[in-house]
Amino acid sequence: MIEIVETDAGTARITWHRATDPRAVLALSHGAGGGIEVRDLRAIAGVLPGHGVSVALVEQPWRVAGKKVAPAPKTLDTGWRGIWPALAGMELPVISGGRSAGARVACRTARELGARAVLALSFPLHPPGRPEKSRADELLGTGVPTLVVQGGNDPFGGPAEFPEGDFRMIEVPYGDHGFAIPKRAGIGQERALEVITDGVVEWTASLV
Question: Where does the KANL3/Tex30 alpha/beta hydrolase-like domain start and stop, copy by copy (predicted)?
Answer without folding.
Answer: 23-203
